[in-house]
Structures are given as structure tokens and as C-alpha cells.
Amino acid sequence: MHYCGDVELMLQDYLDGYLLESQREVLERHVARCPSCRRLLAGITRIDDKLEELGEVDVPGGLAGAILDRLPLDAYAPSPRRRILRYAAAPLAALFLFAVGFLLRGRYVMESVDRAREVEVAIAAPQAVTVAVVGDFNGWDPKRNRLVRSGHEGVWKARLKLPPGTYQYSFVIDGSRWTRDPGAKTGIPDGFGGENSVMVVDG
User: Fold this and answer.
1) 146 - beta bridge partners?
2) How many CB atoms lie within 10 A of CB 124?
């Protein structure tokens, strides 16, 4: 059901031929049932016809300035709503960008978790008491990923679940001795005179 107020907004577009076919049908059905809107449409049509008969009209010079000069000063002041929107626009925009960034980051993290691969790292350290693996995947924190001694051969192993990518890593033996992975094919200077190992996790 359409109300007269809804239809009134469409009348001028109807006369100008801008309405979609479906909108035009709705308007015409309403006007056929509503005497008030029928009279309004007839009145607007007569005004449009009279304006068409006038043709081009020369606007006197300075007319716009004279109209603006006669307006009260508060007519130039922005409405309270516009003032509120002006001051609220920046925080709202920042909040919107933060929300979009948060959602995209969450989506990226979820996709990364879904695509994560399990990889095994190992090192032979028969005399070691503790062994940990550190890298750019765990903030180089020796407490995050401890290796477990496997059998009597002194081989320490750990399984990591990492998204596809290239990672630098090293082993920390007994909490103080940093060493690269002897089984890694690639190394890169660590900036402290030593080397980090490089691991590639395929996608």
C-alpha cells in the first residue's frame, strides 16, 4: 500500500518521464483511486504546461545577489543537524575504517589458520637439557615452542603449524646457546655475527 506522501514525491519525476515502468504503474493505480492525488497531479500538469508556454526567460542581472541580500543572516548558518554531522564525521569515518580493518584482519587470520601446514623441526643435541625453536613466527620467544627429546639418539623434535610463507628461525639450546638448523638448506645473517635458518612453508 502506498500513501499519498510517497506518491507526491514521485509526481514530478512522473511528469518528467524519469520513473521506472514499475513505479509508473504503482503511481497511476494510486492516482486512479485517490481524488486528492488526482487533483494534485492535474494541477502540477497545468503548471508544467504554462511554464512550457513561457519558453526561455531572461534573468535580470543581479537578481541572485538581490535575493541573497534580502535573506536573514541566520539563513546562512548551518542547521543543527549539519553542525552535528560536521563534527561527528571524522570520528565516524575513523570508526568505520577501524571496523573494516578489524573485519579484514579477522578474515585474513581465519584464512591463514585454515591454510596452515604442519611442519617438523629437529636437531641433534645429545648433551642438551632443553631445546626450543624461535623465529619470526613466534616473536623469537624461547618459551613458546619447546622441542621434545626423541629416543636415545639425542634428537629433539617439535611440530609447528604455520600458514604458507617464508620464515627465519633458530634453535636455542639450554636457554642461552643460539644455533642455526644444520639440516636447513638456506641461511641468512642474523645481524649479530651468526646466521638464522630459512624455512619455506608451501601453500
Assistant:
1) 132
2) 13
DSSP code string of 133-182: EEETTTTT-TTT-B-EEETTTTEEEEEEEE-SEEEEEEEEETTTEEE--T
- Any idea what the Cα angle at residue 61 is, between residues 57 and 62, rounded to 5°? 125
d(CA 63, CA 115): 69
Give the domains, in start order, of the chain with CATH numbers. Answer: 4-54 (no CATH), 117-201 (2.60.40.10)
How far apart, in whole angstroms, are the C-alpha atoms of residue 65 and residue 164?
Answer: 67
Dump pLDDT digits (tens) for 53-69.
Answer: 776 767 777 777 777 77
Give the H or E element holding residue 196.
strand 195-201
pLDDT tens, 112-165? 456 788 999 999 999 999 999 999 999 999 999 999 998 778 899 999 999 998
Q: Name every residue whose Cβ is closer than 8 Å to that of residue 1 and which is 6 or more positions away in sequence.
A: none
| Overall pTM > 0.85 | no
Write the burial class of residue 78 (CB in 10 Å: 0-12 exposed, 13-18 middle, 19+ buried).
exposed
DSSP symbols for 58-85: PPPTTHHHHHHHHS-GGGSSPPHHHHHH
> Alpha helices of 71-137 — where are they, by DSSP H?
80-114
What gap in Å lies between CA 199 and CA 197, rounded to an integer?
Answer: 7
